[in-house]
Design brief:
The chain is of the alpha/beta class. It has a single domain, classed as Aldolase class I (TIM Barrel, Alpha-Beta Barrel). About 40% of the residues lie in helices and about 15% in strands. It has eleven helices and eight strands. Strands 1-2-3-4-5-6-7-8 form an eight-stranded parallel β-barrel, surrounded by five helices. α1 runs parallel beside α2 and α5 crosses α7. The chain is globular and about 45 Å long. The structure holds 2-phosphoglycolic acid (PGA). The site of 2-phosphoglycolic acid has 13 residues, from β8.
């Protein structure tokens, strides 16, 4: 039985005081939940603050990104060692916003965003291997653009991202990996992917993991759906065979709505 997961990706939201208030609110609601794994991924500058808020709870801490080197002349980057020192157990790797596939600031086009954020299949793979070496558990993100879906390329794109991310990873490390399927067109748009279709793609992700490692590894891998998950649609998503939880942006910024998502994840374990 795979444990349900509810992970909050706060993205570039919350100053220190807001992060503390939100983490306190989430902890008050879902801090003692045992039937679901709850992970909070605040901005780097708020990690230590959130760590203090969740210290006596079951909630885990995650980073939103990392660089693969331990230290050095890499201005603005954050190493796995630093995340561990802040109390992180998890780290999101290869979010579509970091791959420059979504979230255009100002008038920037996608080419510009590639240069700004820069994650590729190759850097995602290096980060995954580095996270595992350091003892961090990567939450690997994959997902297709609207144009790729319309062209019928969803499965090829998503499977390709998963295979690339897992290159050089040993089967015995796979228990420390979570994969999040996040169709780019559903992120932050309010447009959730149909639960049936999200389940189909998450199942395809699981098959890809089986091809890379083994059926046993795939059967135990937690595969999440992300993209406009909210209290109104979470039950339908959690009821799906291949969806083990959510990676949540917008609805994780409100303690009551994230609390409802935690409850739904825990209830799905029954
Ligand atoms: P959303 O973001 O829930 O705001 O759509 C999800 C994500 O990007 O992880």
């Amino acid at each position: 039985m795979r444990k349900p997961v509810m992970a909050g990706n706060w993205k570039m939201n919350c100053d220190i005081a807001e992060a503390e208030a939100l983490a306190d609110g989430v902890t008050a609601h879902g801090g003692q939940v045992e039937d679901a794994l709850v992970i909070l991924c605040p901005p780097f500058v708020a990690l230590t603050t959130v760590q203090k808020s969740i210290a006596n709870s079951n909630i885990k801490l995650g980073g939103q990104n990392m660089f693969w080197e331990d230290e050095g002349a890499f201005t603005g980057e954050t190493s796995p060692k630093m995340l561990l020192a802040c109390g992180c157990e998890y780290v999101i790797i290869g979010h579509s916003e970091r791959r420059g596939r979504f979230g255009a600031p100002d008038e920037a086009d996608v080419e510009d965003l590639d240069a700004v954020f820069g994650d590729t299949d190759a850097t995602v793979n290096r980060k995954v291997r580095s996270a595992l070496d350091a003892g961090l558990k990567p939450i690997i993100c994959c997902g297709e653009l609207l144009g790729e879906r319309q062209a019928g390329d969803t499965d090829a794109v998503v499977a390709g991202q998963v295979e690339a991310a897992l290159q050089g990873v040993a089967a015995d490390e796979a228990a420390n990996i979570i994969i999040a399927y996040e169709p780019v067109w559903a992120i932050g748009t309010g447009e959730v992917c149909d639960a049936d279709e999200a389940n189909r793609v998450c199942g395809m992700v699981r098959e890809t993991v089986a091809d890379v490692f083994s059926q046993d590894v795939a059967d135990n891998m937690q595969v999440l759906y992300g993209g406009s998950v909210k209290p109104e649609n979470v039950e339908g998503l959690m009821a799906q065979e291949h969806i083990d939880g959510g990676l949540v942006g917008g609805a994780s910024l409100d303690a009551a709505s994230f609390g409802a998502l935690i409850d739904a994840a825990a209830a799905s374990a029954q």
